[in-house]
Design goal:
This protein has 368 residues and is of the alpha+beta class. The chain is built from nine helices and 26 strands. The strands form four sheets. It has an 18-stranded mixed β-sheet that branches.
Length: 368
């Protein structure tokens, strides 16, 4: 029976329950893992050559025998990592030495105060130069008092290090979720009149408070995202080749000099640093907003895309020397808030065997 289930799994035809059974069988013993890997390699090769590989495929299937005992402890460990995980990849395993951990603080810079504020305590008040409380910091969130100003706007800047996320509620009631490695600049109080202008480098999810008289504008380098009240995600890491804006609710306009595009819900606009005609497409918005819930949803994602997100979430550097691994595609959901990086990598190894070591905050994946 198990060989039939693995065949369905590899052909992406297995149900969620059948995928669970395959994973339980793999986790039951090292012998099962080896058989699965061999079977998977053959499955990959059959797509390249048929006649010879068909014999190998049948031969390995015949070797697989059902085993009665399952290691449910092991399975539950991986169940904590994933909700559903179905991979479409092909080939490849090792040693874990020590777990890298770097503690970086979230830093708040205030325009008219030279000293930056480390938000390394669970709770503290944010004061202006006169000693007045203008915001409260509580764990992973800052909430500004709902006030406006008629004076020159003073900007605050939040710097979110790799491995951390944060949330800020601005003085107009807008909530902004900030992803790892993000810099966000915003007024401590918006002006009573005119645009509500903020600046972003990195990734953020916005829930903008409606105000028809004061449009909310997110500036990303030389591109503006203009809204009145809506929910959308902006991805603008400086080391990415492309930037994007994904609209969940309402409407937004992305603009650059004489070029602009209007987005409707479930649309994504993408552009590059040098090429500003906006490319619009329909998308599943959950793929772009799941990080706000501590999840990573994958839909036929290449390994390089996954490693980039894991590097930001866990503040590590992943060096992949396995060329075959990069050819794989992965689909499923990973909870990176409640899982260790080792658990996630070991889970990926179930499908595509590879070996890795951890040294000096680096994950080094061996060559094929």
């Amino acid at each position: 029976m198990i060989s039939n289930l693995i065949t369905k799994y590899l052909n992406n035809q297995a149900t969620e329950k059948e995928v669970e059974l395959v994973f339980e069988w793999i986790a039951a013993s090292d012998a099962n893992k080896k058989e699965f890997i061999a079977l998977k390699k053959t499955w990959v090769l059959t797509s390249i050559e048929s006649e010879t590989k068909e014999k190998d495929w049948q031969s390995i299937q015949n070797k697989i025998k059902s085993r009665k005992s399952f290691n449910y402890t092991t399975w539950l460990k991986y169940a904590a990592v994933i909700i559903i995980f179905i991979t479409l990849g092909k080939i490849s395993w090792s040693s874990i030495n020590n777990k890298p951990k770097q503690e970086n603080s979230i830093v708040l810079e205030v325009e008219n105060i030279k000293k930056a504020i480390n938000l390394n305590t669970n709770k503290q008040n944010i004061l202006d130069v006169a000693g007045k409380v203008i915001a409260e910091h509580n764990n992973n969130e800052i909430v500004y008092k709902n006030e406006t100003t008629t004076k020159t706007v003073i900007y605050h800047t939040l710097n979110i290090p790799l491995g951390k996320t944060f949330k800020v509620k601005l003085s107009d009631g807008t909530t902004v979720h900030l992803n790892s490695g993000t810099t966000f600049k915003y007024p401590k109080q918006f002006h009573k009149k005119g645009n509500r202008l903020v600046y972003l480098e990195g990734e953020a999810f916005f829930e903008v408070e409606k105000d028809a008289t004061r449009p909310f504008i997110v500036n990303i380098a030389d591109v503006d995202v203009k809204v009145l009240g809506t929910k959308f995600n902006v991805n603008a890491y400086s080391n990415n080749a492309t930037y994007s804006c994904v609209l969940v609710e309402g409407a937004v306009t992305v603009s650059h000099t004489n070029n602009n595009s209007l987005l409707t819900p479930n649309q994504k606009a993408s552009w590059t640093k040098t090429d500003k005609p906006f490319k619009l497409e329909e998308v599943n918005t959950d793929l772009y907003t799941s990080w706000t819930k501590g999840e990573l949803i994958l839909d036929s994602a290449h390994f390089s895309e996954i490693t980039k997100k894991l590097e930001r979430a866990f503040n590590v550097k992943i060096i992949n020397n396995n060329e075959v691994l990069e050819l794989q595609e992965f689909s499923g959901t990973i909870n990176f808030k409640t899982s260790s990086l080792e658990n996630i990598l070991d889970l990926l190894k179930f499908d595509t065997y590879f070996e890795y070591t951890i040294k000096d905050n680096q994950i080094i994946i061996s060559s094929n």
